[in-house]
Write a structure and sequence with these properties.
The complex is a heterodimer of chains A (252) and B (376). Chain A is of the alpha/beta class and 252 residues long. Chain A contains 9 helices and 12 strands. In chain A, the strands form 3 sheets. In chain A, strands 6-9-10-3-11-12 form a 6-stranded mixed β-sheet, with helices on both faces. In chain A, strands 2-1-4-5 form a 4-stranded antiparallel β-sheet, covered by helices on one side. In chain A, strands 7-8 form a two-stranded antiparallel sheet. In chain A, helix 4 packs across helix 5 and helix 5 runs parallel beside helix 6. Helix content of chain B is 71%, strand content 2%. In chain B, strands 1-2 form a two-stranded antiparallel ribbon. The chains are: A alpha/beta (252), B mainly alpha (376). The interface between A and B is medium-sized, with 33 and 26 residues.
Amino acid sequence: MAETPLVEMRRITKRFGGVTALSEVDLTARAGEVLAIVGDNGAGKSTLIKILTGVYQPTEGSILIDGQEVSFASHAEAIEQGIDAVYQTLALADHLDPAANMFLGNELTKKVFGMTILDNKRMRTETERVLMDRLGVRLKSLDAATESLSGGQRQAVAIARAVYSEGLRVLVMDEPTAALGPQETARTLKLIETLRDQGLAVILISHSLDDVFQVSDRIHVQRRGRQVGVVRTADSNTQEVLGLIVGAEEAA
Amino acid sequence: MSATDTAPQRPRSFADRAEPYIAIIGPMVMILAILLFMGVVEPARYFRLSNLNLILLDAALYMPMAMAMTFVITQRGIDLSIGSIAALSGILMAFLIKQYDFPAWVAVPIALTLGALMGLINGLIITRLKVPDLIGTLAMDLVYRGLALVIAKGLVLARFPDLITDIGRGQIPGFIPIPVVIGIATMVGGYFLLTRTYFGRYTIAIGSSPESAELTGISVNRHKVYAYVLMGAAAALGGLMLTGKLNAIQATSAPYFNLHVIAAVVVGGTSLFGGRASMVGSFAGVLLLSMMINALVTLRIEFFWQSVASGVVIVSSVALYTWMQKKDRDGAKGLLAGLSTPDGQKMLRFSAAIIGVLIALLALGTLLAGEPVPSG
């Protein structure tokens, strides 16, 4: 525990006009660890994550990566520093095939007679490789449109897009299991474990305490814009975390 | 590291496997139907080589525009101003040649660039001023047509240099007409653009989900503008080919280009709801419409029926695609089953009432009618 955490957010405060969405929140995430962030609606989970991924800028407080202070003016800058997110909507274009989706906005190209054209063949083999090597997923067909894939497979494509960048160190997943059935949820949790074993810091936002207890190493609890506790999953139970979320412990 | 590939194996039905090809099957079936019908009814005149040439010549005119419209529609857009862009750029080119004595080989690229400029204006109106595409291009259709009328003042400009008539109706000896070569080349170019370039890839992504495209860092507005610029240039090329074909141009030329081209693209299976593009389908759609119109002419059916036939083909093909894309057909039990539901009953009574009122009014008119009076 003595090593420097990969990500450290210190005393983060965010105000939108007169509304304080976050006040003095601390968050640490380590490589090879799944950190779950739980809390009721409006507890500040999304705001916290959007600050980490550079979508919002904090009003006060600082972000450290490997002990170095950084500040992100945009999401793109966060990606450069190795922090990326998989959104709840997955940001997939359903009519394109998985390979096109995986490289959407970041296509591989080749030069033919001095013209830059898309290298569809290489994008295909790379997609196959990344899905298999990093996520252990093989799709039945890489030709079918992404809309024909199952929820878990779509998730895998979206995750593959994030992990394709070699510099990725922190992956934020916003409600990855919200729209999935039990079987697909189990597969997605397995993907999260796979990524953790590869040394990524995974930050998981979830409403499902079952998922959180199954996959996380530590749980960060938010309530009304404040961090009300961080517990080690192994030393805790659903009751305790639930108590923190609704504030029962505080009142007692 | 376990595999996630164990999605329940379901046997791929015929519909599943046919799905990617629906876009091509639709117009192909209709083309075959026309061929069969004409083969029975009027084989001698329809299948003459000269008639085949006529069909291709007619289709070639619409090919560049159908190519560009495929991109516009795939991005969930529409462009209703292409007929006026064709006329205005044709008129401007004609004036440059006839009035100011520009050489044709300079005037032609100027016309194409002017078309691109008009497309750029359309694109900026839609993306910067946030005017919805339907209204924006409809209004610009009026503007461009009005400008063409202002400039040409009812003149018909005719007799152009060889270069222009070659583009419009030239023939490569022993081969196909030059406009057909141009048309097919633009379709092939369009296919390449769609499948091998950033522009094509992003066009599909934007039409599929503008929000996702934005999230992955694609500049949605810039790529929309590109599509309208391509559309404008293609419309100008259409106007140029029309000028060459007729060896004349006037401000009221090309009145229904927009609907004809949109029809061809939609019949070809490109979805009006975006994301689903088929360049081969658009090509087939253009051919289908030209073959149908030619068939009506060959059958000596009055010209005005062409408009009726075009409309029927559009409605039926779009309805067919919608039906084919509906995954769950269980319990639908065909078209008439809906009539027995309470809602269907209300609709039935409502329709019956309208028809009833019409019949009653016609009967009343007949009762009160006297001797016909000539209106002249």
